[in-house]
Amino acid sequence: MSDVSQGPGWWMASDGKWYPPEQHPDYVAPAPPPPAAPPPASPPPAGPPPAGPPPAGPPPGGAEPPPTWAPPPAPTSPVPAYGPPMAGAAPPGMYVDAQSGLVLPQGVVLASVGRRIGAYFLAIPLAIVTLGIGYVIWGLIVWGRGQTPALQVLGMRCWRPETGRVAEWGWMALREVVGRLVESLLAIITSLVSFILMLTNKDRKCLHDMIAGTVVLHDPGKVLAG
Q1: Could you tell me the residue ranges of all domains in the chain?
Q2: What is the pLDDT of residues 193-214, one digit of tens each?
Q3: Nearest Cα to Cα of residue 104 among 204, 1, 206
Q4: Residue 78: CB partners within 8 Å, gap ≥ 6?
Q5: Closest CA to 111 of 99, 121, 122
Q6: How far apart are CA 126 and CA 150, in angstroms?
Q7: CA separation (Å) from 82 to 93, 160, 211?
Q8: What letter does residue 73 receive in the DSSP assignment?
Q9: Cα(40)–Cα(54) distance, rounded to whole angstroms?
Q10: Regarding predicted confidence, which is higher, 2 or 100?
Q11: What distance in Å separates the CA atoms of residue 160 and residue 147, rounded to the nearest whole number?
Q12: pLDDT band at residue 112, thresholds of 50, 70 and 90?
């Protein structure tokens, strides 16, 4: 309310006073402005999708992925060098002796009990015929071939399964010197024990063979001569 008009729309009442437009009996308030429109959405960035692992879970449709097939690994069959073999395994030119389980060269066999006994008793007349000293010299020569005089006459050789070779001179010296001394410690008792061991062991080792780690092979074709 004022004594003078304050601007457009003011009106004079019957009391001679001026009033603002909103107090006029016929005043209509203006409509509010419409709400502002939302800004347009920004387009997705161009380029390949971001790298990363695919989402976990089954593929669309609920089906499980098929299993991946891979060929089985090739079987390996390690072949031992010589000596006690794995089941049925033998290098070329060798075979597995069914009785002892040793891997032996083709053309030789484990010497039989009869041949071993024959070599034991053959050594006696050979020592007599060569006057003892001749038998010793003969033995020193053939030890390098894995033999004793009696073994040489009967076509046998000493073989070391641990190395897969004919026993060398040092091993034969151990067999024939140290081994025989051990067998003679208690005379007939240790000799009898050695004989029983040869009969019962599958590789027919006497006590002196056990000391030197040798077995006796029959080599009729002289396969081991080289």
Answers
A1: 94-220
A2: 999 999 999 999 999 999 999 9
A3: 204
A4: 86, 89
A5: 99
A6: 8
A7: 11, 9, 19
A8: P
A9: 31
A10: 100
A11: 12
A12: very high
Supply angle C-alpha 41, 43, 45, rounded to 5. 140
pLDDT in tens, 158-187: 999 999 999 999 999 999 999 999 999 888
Please give the single-letter amino acid code of residue 128. Answer: I
Helical (H) or strand (E) element with 117:
helix 113-129
Main-chain dihedrals φ then ψ at residue 11, nearest 5 degrees: -135, 155
**How far apart, in whole angstroms, are the C-alpha atoms of residue 191 and residue 10?**
149
Retrieve residue 95's tokens.
């075979």
| Higher per-residue pLDDT: 29 or 213 | 213
Report which of 121, 180, 175, 182 is spatially closest to residue 150, judged by C-alpha positions: 121
β partners of residue 110? 217
Q: Give the type of residue at 165.
A: R
DSSP for 170-216, please give it: HHHHIIIIIIHHHHTTTTHHHHHHHHHHHHHSTT---HHHHHHT-EE
Can you tell me the distance from the alpha carbon of 99 to that of 10, in angstroms, rounded to the nearest whole number?
Answer: 134
Give CA–CA dist 216/115, Å, rounded.
Answer: 10
